[in-house]
Specification:
Length: 354
């Protein structure tokens, strides 16, 4: 069973669509390799992201969190996350906008993943002054049936006071679900680990990922970090911060496992995973079904108000499909498409234009 909740926190918009229980299946067995990477959209502009895809393919993460993602902007006309998914053969991807209606599209953070998430949560942090809006995205996963939460974000570059405010909102948002779940946060924090704003994480019980020599894995730029909580539930198997020329930020990766989690048969775990994919372009929803299903799909405002139903329990064949949104009478801007079939539900953002 799924739970749906839309709440408002001070200065943030929260969208929550999640499984009632994440213990039903295990996408990842024994351990999971995670990676965070700021791919520097400004430098790529309309050029190919093949260099970024090559880095991801070389590191081979199970889950890759990314910052500075363009989504159908005048700078990069393609949905970059979808393109990277195809190039890296990581079939599952989730996107969260930070700057909406940006260059006729949007700009934000996202995940590539080898296995479909069991839940997703999204947080939009609206600017309070001269700083940029920011987005936060969470995926619920399991490692051999044990639930964990993986979060990607990108904090303000305008100053420590803005970062401090954003971190406070993120920690409140995380703890609104649970204070005991295994959580891992990966981000370009735009801050060294010694900055006062980052002390909020350590005060809340988070630990920095360190390599086998005990050094924090942020040695090249000192602003890209991975943190986890609780300390006694995570084990860092290996970690690195290799140097590449593809971006002005270098990737940070870590292989993590949960303490006390037994190893299960990988084939059984893969059978339990749902291979549904959904992505959007301006005014269009693309989706891929693993099997023939009765699909319901609806368009919502960012605040959670239903606009209209796109599909109502419609029987759809397995495979890839595209659905155009009727924009008549709809204001241009960012919306959310919610989809459900069988016992599965998910959501993705969509930009509506004239």
């Amino acid at each position: 069973m799924f739970t749906k909740k839309i709440t408002k926190l001070a200065g943030v918009a929260v969208l929550y669509i999640a499984l009632g229980s994440m213990s039903a299946g295990a996408q990842y067995t024994s351990q999971v390799k995670l990676m965070t990477y700021n791919i520097n959209a400004e430098a790529h502009e309309s050029k190919s992201y093949s260099d970024i895809a090559a880095v991801i393919k070389e590191i081979k993460p199970d889950i890759c969190g990314m910052q500075k993602l363009d989504s159908v902007t005048t700078r990069s006309s393609q949905y970059v996350l979808s393109w990277l998914s195809e190039q890296t053969s990581m079939p599952n991807f989730e996107y969260q906008s930070a700057m909406r209606n940006y260059l006729s599209g949007s700009y934000g953070v996202g995940f590539l993943a080898n296995q479909a998430p069991l839940s997703t949560r999204r947080l939009w942090i609206e600017k309070t002054a001269s700083e940029q809006d920011r987005g936060v995205l969470e995926m619920g996963i399991t490692i051999d049936g044990t639930p964990a939460r993986v979060i990607v974000t990108h904090l303000a570059h305008e100053g420590a006071s803005y970062r401090s405010s954003q971190i406070k909102k993120i920690l409140t948002w995380i703890d609104s679900v649970s204070t005991t779940d295994p959580v891992l946060i990966m981000a370009d924090f735009n801050a060294d680990s010694t900055e006062s704003s980052m002390q909020q994480f350590t005060n809340a019980g988070y630990e920095y990922v360190r390599d086998k020599d005990g050094k924090r894995v942020d040695i090249t730029k000192k602003i890209n970090h991975m943190l986890y909580r609780p300390k006694d539930k995570w084990i860092v198997v290996d970690a690195g911060n290799p140097v590449y020329a593809a971006s002005n930020r270098n990737p940070v990766w870590a292989t993590m496992k949960l303490a006390g989690v037994p190893v299960k048969d990988e084939k059984t775990a893969l059978k339990q995973n749902c291979a549904y994919r959904q992505w959007t372009e301006c005014n269009t929803v693309h989706y891929e079904l693993p099997a023939r299903s009765d699909v319901t799909m609806s368009l919502y405002t960012i605040e959670g108000k239903k606009v209209y139903t796109l599909l109502s329990n419609q029987n759809v064949d397995a495979g890839k499909h595209s659905l155009s949104v009727n924009v008549n009478g709809i204001k241009c801007g960012m919306y959310v498409v919610r989809t459900s079939f069988s016992d599965f539900k998910t959501s993705s953002e969509i930009v509506i234009t004239d």
